[in-house]
Amino acid sequence: MPPKKPRKQAADAAAQAEAAARDAKREEVEEEDDEDDEDDEGEEDDDDREALNLGTEDATEPLSIDFGFFDPKASDFHGMRALLLSGTALMPAGSTWDISGLADVLSEQVEVGSVAKTIGEGSEEPADDDVLGFMSAVNLQVHRTKLFAQEMRASMLKRCPDASAREELSRRFDDPRVGLIVSERMINLPAALVPSLIDSLLQDIAWAAENAEDKATRDALNFSELLLIAAVTLKPGSSAGGNGSSGGPIGAGASSSEGGASGGGKRPKKRERQAAAASAQAALFETVEFVRTEEEILAATAEWQALLNGTGRTRQMVLALTPEGMRQAIPALHAAMGEDA
Length: 341
Description:
Helix content: 40-55%
Largest sheet: 9 strands, mixed
Number of domains: 1
Distance between the termini: 36 Å
Order of helices and strands: HHEHHEEHHEHHEEHEHEEH
Oligomer: single chain
């Protein structure tokens, strides 16, 4: 098998810059506190505080940590499984999906997927085997006989808001070129790494379509569309009634062969469908807040989306994305993924 493209390490500098900015901000606050104390404390306290500040300065030196992206391997199974079990985006509360089966597929799929780990000092190899985060994509049609794929499909179809959304989602589950993005990370993984994880996923998909070892694998990973399960919270006063699905910029059913007369009558109807789909998408997004910054940005590029039914204000939204749309969103992701993840 040809070697995979070198992993991008550009995110390391961004992550270190983010950490340095936090340290600088903390030192600035400490200096302001010191100035306030000087107005109230005597000379003896000033001497004590000077000694204390010396110790604090040493303790708050910027900590430089290098991160790298690596191909999944069998030993990552437990770390990926633990992140999946502790996460809330993919598996709805109260569910007991076969997460072990999913982690097994993810850890063995080396062609597509990246695992984030710390890099040892002066090395390009992982400092340890701790999985701090990962991003991958699986073909649910290829794995349709596996328990986790059957459970995911049944759960999401059952929670679709209406028959139209159920039909659209079912069609995508049956499409051999549609994949499901699976991503989890520790809460303290620098947000600056996320855009590069997405970029790495897209590079892997492009690489696998050309270079995977056999034709079956190349076909299975040559995704034309990717489903993303985003965690959202209903805004106060909003309702998740029957209007929980809509087409994206193109529309859920915006093919040129739909419902129009021949000849010049097609163009106005297609424009009307596109306008209606864009309006419905905007209206739907106005009712929710995305938990993750990157999912809100990617949602703006969605070809189709559906807000799944649930209890309480925490819900899941299915987004149908194209690799090209995701690629075009990467500059916006880099610009937005600062101190807040």
